[in-house]
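Q: I'm building a small set of examples for a reading group on sequence design. Run inverse folding on the following structure and report the sequence directly after it, with nothing in between.
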């Protein structure tokens, strides 16, 4: 038996040795790493005093680079936060180590919005999250990319928007087009999610306008209650407003969901809710434990929150980019003129732009890219969390640390962009102005990696159709005697522009006959 004992001891010795070496290696790997430069921090309040500033967070974080370098850390209450301001570090976080940094922090306001993270955007990385994302991706793909249906839906809404603009133009009134923009963008998403549409003035639509603004004003802004969760115990007007708005939204979503459940049939797939319901039924009929609906989290709550996400993301983001695009077009009439000339030349004057025209209108595409660069919808993206001890470059990052990718810094980096504050669509064109180029990799308006925006393709289609239809028929300007709209945004979960009014002038060259369905 001696040889058995001998073998046992030597195997144990070798296994022990391997474990020890691996362990040492890991410790060494964290050991050789440096600590990040950190903003001064006091017990309990963290770095709050250094963050008091006249600047908005994305601008302040960019400015702080001058003192602390492109990557630094700070304390928000008791949470450590890393701010990434440079493309190489952003690439490491989002792409190279995407899975390690795929977590999301739990905060009071996002928990209220998403029933404790049961959605895709704010939900933590898990099997449920991956499964949901896969289904939604599939469903969007089915109704979206390259499908004639989505093109028809967007063109119908673009036509509606142009008719409203035509009326305003006829009465020579300037207008704030926010409700109309919101209506058409909502209708695209409504068609995808619920197979229904609204008109401006519809009471359900009006309540949507209100609750959505209420949510944007109060959620995920790193408000004090998110930094110090115990503040919930005290009266808090913002949190009360958020809860009210979320409850109105949830009632509406619930109603649509119940209607769909009642009408559900296996061979009917009209919209996204049908697709989610079908996936749920499929999982329920599948008996293997790892595929059951409970283990994959396809609860009614998850489905509702997922639809809420797509709805909120689809409406607020696209509408915000359209508003910024109009602002920059008003500020740069020569850009409008060049887009219009390009369209007149390539499409003629008798037909509406179609998605298939995207390749032949590079200047319009370049303008859309430049708007997304200069005013990214989500300047700080949504915070990521390190799911294990790791590193960025040669800096230590401990498990649980929150990481903010400052897209604003990436898009305004002087080393990457010539005159980053200047609006210049030409930077996305080749020297002849005939084709699109990628002037810098420091550009990711939709984020990147495993949490990249799910609606990127849909957003690009909408921006192209809406802007091309508007500019083919109208020239936009500020009302006479009034200054152009403000270029400074208001930071929040999306970077919103201030309200402004627009005068629309019909282009005399544009045909006036009725819209022919595209
Ligand atoms: C917008 C207001 C809605 O009522 C709720 C909502 C849901 C999803 C959020 C969206 C809001 C804002 C923009 C977000 C989106 C998920 C992904 C997107 C944060 C709060 C971005 C830009 O990352």
């Amino acid at each position: 038996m001696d040889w058995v004992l001998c073998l046992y001891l030597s195997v144990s010795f070798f296994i022990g040795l391997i474990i020890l070496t691996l362990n040492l290696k890991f410790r060494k790997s964290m050991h050789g790493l440096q600590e990040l430069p950190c903003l001064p921090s006091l017990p309990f309040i963290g770095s709050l005093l250094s963050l008091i500033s006249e600047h908005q967070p994305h601008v302040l974080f960019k400015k702080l680079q001058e003192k602390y370098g492109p990557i630094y850390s700070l304390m928000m209450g008791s949470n450590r936060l890393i701010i990434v301001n440079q493309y190489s570090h952003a690439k490491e976080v989002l792409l190279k180590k995407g899975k390690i940094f795929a977590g999301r922090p739990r905060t009071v306001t996002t928990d209220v919005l998403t029933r404790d993270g049961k959605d895709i955007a704010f939900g933590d990385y898990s099997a449920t999250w991956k499964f949901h994302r896969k289904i939604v991706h599939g469903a969007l793909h089915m109704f979206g990319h390259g499908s004639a249906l989505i093109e028809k839906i967007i063109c119908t809404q673009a036509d509606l928007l142009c008719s409203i603009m035509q009326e305003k133009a006829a009465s020579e009134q300037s207008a704030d087009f926010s409700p109309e923009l919101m209506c058409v963008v909502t209708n695209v998403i409504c068609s995808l999610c619920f197979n229904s549409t609204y008109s401006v003035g519809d009471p359900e639509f009006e309540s949507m306008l209100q609750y959505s603004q209420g949510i944007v004003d109060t959620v995920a802004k790193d408000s004090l209650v998110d930094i110090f969760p115990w503040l919930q115990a005290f009266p808090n007007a913002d949190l009360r407003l958020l809860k009210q708005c979320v409850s109105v939204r949830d009632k509406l979503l619930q109603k649509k969901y119940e209607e769909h459940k009642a009408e559900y049939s296996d061979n009917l797939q009209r919209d996204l809710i049908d697709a989610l319901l079908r996936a749920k039924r499929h999982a329920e009929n599948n008996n293997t434990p790892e595929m059951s609906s409970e283990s994959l989290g396809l609860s009614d709550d998850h489905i509702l929150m997922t639809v809420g996400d797509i709805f909120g993301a689809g409406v607020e983001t696209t509408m915000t980019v359209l508003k910024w695009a109009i602002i920059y077009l008003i500020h740069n009439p020569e850009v409008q003129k060049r887009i219009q000339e390009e369209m007149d030349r390539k499409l003629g004057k008798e037909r509406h732009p179609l998605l298939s025209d995207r390749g032949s209108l590079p200047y319009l595409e370049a303008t859309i890219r430049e708007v997304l660069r200069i005013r990214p919808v989500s300047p700080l993206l949504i915070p990521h969390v390190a799911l294990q001890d790791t590193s960025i470059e040669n800096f230590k990052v401990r498990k649980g640390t929150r990481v903010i990718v400052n897209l604003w810094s990436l898009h305004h980096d002087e080393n990457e962009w010539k005159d980053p504050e200047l609006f210049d669509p030409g930077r996305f064109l080749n020297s002849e102005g005939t084709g699109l180029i990628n002037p810098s990799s420091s550009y990711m308006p939709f984020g990147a990696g495993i949490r990249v925006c799910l609606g990127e393709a849909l957003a690009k289609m909408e921006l192209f159709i809406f802007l091309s239809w508007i500019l083919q028929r109208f020239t936009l300007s500020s009302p006479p005697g009034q200054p152009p709209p403000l270029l400074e945004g208001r930071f929040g979960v999306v970077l919103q522009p201030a309200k402004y009014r627009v005068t629309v002038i019909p282009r005399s060259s544009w045909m006036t006959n009725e819209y022919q369905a595209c």
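The chain has one domain: 30-506.
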